[in-house]
Amino acid sequence: MFNFYIIGIPDRMEVSLSDEVKEVLQNHHYFSGGKRHRNLVASYLPENAKWIDVVIPLEGTFLVYEQIDEPIVVIASGDPLFFGIGNTIKCRFPDAKIKVYPYFNSLQLLAHEFQLAYGEMTICTLTGRNWVNLDQELIRGKKCIGVLTDKRKTPATIAARMLDAGFDNYKMIVGSKLGGEEQYCTEISLHEVVGEDFAHPNCLILIQEREIKRTLGIHEADFHILEGRPKMITKRSIRLNSISFLELNNAKHLWDVGYCTGSVSIEAKQFAPHLQVTAFERREESKELLKLNQRKFCVPGIDGIHDDFFNIDLSAIQSPDRIFIGGHGGKLNEMMNRLCAVLHDDGIIVFNAVSEATKLDFLRAAKELQMEITDQMIIQQDDHNPIVIFQAKKRN
């Protein structure tokens, strides 16, 4: 016997249910779902049916489930395992026996309307999720992206964010109230979407119309830089080697301290689009530089914090597992102490020493903090001074 039967249904019950699903509905006592689901399946339920409303937060609903010794039939929209309640039930009741009867999910229905070959579609959800879920697919240049929205991350706000980041190379297909009598679908440009309001629930598909060319190693001359300060940027060869020292493939959160033009943040995010990046800089003019460079290279999702680093409450910011020190204002020892205190265990700090004095200061601070120097490299670009790149790891 199953503990849960989870049935995915369309928004129009004219679509016939299978005999097996009808039998499940007729032969059980406890049912659960939203009020809309109850109305849709009411005619299929037995006279003695007991209905449990699914309400947010779900823990209250799950506590009710735990008091029931009989199987529960959960009604959901579309495919319950497609970012749906089926996954949540599996996590919350790991030992339960579950039988799932899926229907088409919303993005499938939208693709069907436009006869899209959606087998290679990349799926991301913004339903209560961070923007990085979409940003990373845009940076990777995915040609077809299916996006699940919510009441804040709507088609209009998504289009506006994309255009602000320089992604004008997609068109959008939007579907609202899919599968129901009020279904509405349209193909529309991003500029047009910004002024549109679509009924909820809705979802969308982004279709790439032209590719954005990317390069590994952006020439420093291509960045917007501080006026009159052409040397105030981490040079390309130094930047690429520093990023390799950061070991970003398995990293989650990078702090770029003293970002100046944002070159390291942008190159790191382009290389590792999944990465959360927080960039710190005290220069007020760098705030606009970061925006300009993000837009130029189509790299959204870098959070800039603009203040003297030593005045910032670091406890209010999600802690990092990777740190690049691009500037320290002559207070390297104090900065290292602050950074090491919030760095995750086995986290990495990368530092570029431009002089013998800063080299010795970094080595001294790392030793005092019991950090291990795990890699270093001396490198010189063109006629600039040699730089020592250090990698230091925080051990448990």
Keywords, separated by commas or semicolons:
single chain; 396 residues; alpha/beta; Cobalt-precorrin-4 Transmethylase, domain 1; Methyltransferase, Cobalt-precorrin-4 Transmethylase, Domain 2; Rossmann fold; 7-stranded mixed sheet; 5-stranded parallel sheet; 13 helices; elongated; protein methyltransferase activity; cobalamin biosynthesis; CbiE; methyltransferase
Topology at a glance:
Blueprint: E1 4-9, H1 19-26, E2 30-33, H2 35-41, E3 50-53, H3 58-66, E4 72-77, H4 85-92, E5 98-101, H5 106-113, E6 122-125, H6 132-139, E7 144-148, H7 155-164, E8 170-176, E9 184-189, H8 190-193, E10 202-208, H9 236-246, E11 253-257, H10 263-271, E12 276-281, H11 285-296, E13 302-306, E14 322-325, H12 332-342, E15 348-353, H13 356-368, E16 371-379, E17 387-394
Parallel strand pairs: 1-4, 1-5, 2-3, 2-4, 6-7, 11-12, 11-14, 12-13, 14-15
Antiparallel strand pairs: 7-10, 8-9, 8-10, 15-17, 16-17
Helix pairs in contact: 12-13
Short description:
The protein has helices at residues 19-26, 35-41, 58-66, 85-92, 106-113, 132-139, 155-164, 190-193, 236-246, 263-271, 285-296, 332-342, 356-368, and strands spanning 4-9, 30-33, 50-53, 72-77, 98-101, 122-125, 144-148, 170-176, 184-189, 202-208, 253-257, 276-281, 302-306, 322-325, 348-353, 371-379, 387-394.
Write structural notes for this entry:
- The chain is of the alpha/beta class and 396 residues long.
- The protein has helices at residues 19-26, 35-41, 58-66, 85-92, 106-113, 132-139, 155-164, 190-193, 236-246, 263-271, 285-296, 332-342, 356-368; strands at 4-9, 30-33, 50-53, 72-77, 98-101, 122-125, 144-148, 170-176, 184-189, 202-208, 253-257, 276-281, 302-306, 322-325, 348-353, 371-379, 387-394.
- It has a seven-stranded mixed β-sheet, sandwiched between helices. Strands 3-2-4-1-5 form a five-stranded parallel β-sheet, sandwiched between helices.
- Helix 6 links the parallel strand 6 (122-125) and strand 7.
- It is elongated and about 85 Å long.
- The mean pLDDT is 93.
